[in-house]
Amino acid sequence: MPKVSIILPTYNGSKWIETAIKSVFEQIFLDWELIVIDDWSTDGVDRIVLEYAQRDSRIVYVKNERNLGIQKTLNRGLNMAKGEYIARIDDDDEWSDPRKLEEQIAFLDTHPDYVLVGTGAIVIDESGKELFRFLNTETDEGIRNSILGKNCFTHCSVMFRKDAALRVGGYSEERNALHVEDYDLWLKLGGVGKMANLQTYSIMWRMRSGAISSKNRMMQFTNGIKLVVKFRRQYPGFLKGFFRSWIRLFAYGVFRFIPILKLKYFLFKIGKER
To answer: What transmembrane ranges does the database entry give (predicted)?
Structure first.
């Protein structure tokens, strides 16, 4: 039984998925399984993954019988996982620190009251060039005081306890949680244990130019407001978080029409740092 199960969902992710897989192989910690769930891709991503799976039995490849969407795909991986801990990576991101798994496992092993731990991130463009980097809020107290105002975790940086995630129902498959299913899970996990972020830049988060202004962002911000209302009694700072969420929604309504990409990167950096 592996110590950690790494869940990698993909949908037509053949362009960068090999980079993501290679970054997993560069980890110092070796007791893992990599579960790749293909959500009915049509771009040949299966050939890339199966080539690696034939060489290493730690890679498990499954393909959905139809396109299920990210929420159900993530839960399929969660239910398949054999590890005590769950780590996440996306098909267009990569882990930059070879000690990432080792350090997060050590943290959770020595802090049994914690259920979730993330890291900071290096933001890169489509060519792999660094744009900027940021650290997420470190302590449980700080996270609880901030989490209604912003998502304090970068999804592909996290590691969490599988039993705790299953206990709170895993990733929400409700329409109101679409594109914020990770945020919803962190808010639920905070109800059963403590949370933290290591102050390390352990991942490279690829910012694709199309994704910055995608229509999904508006739904993400709208559904984020609904989560703030839903969890208002479990965390402090509801009014501040609610107000900030609406400002973010209106600001993005303007932001997505800015034609200059470098200016978008700059504004996105400010938003992440604050």
So the answer is: 249-268
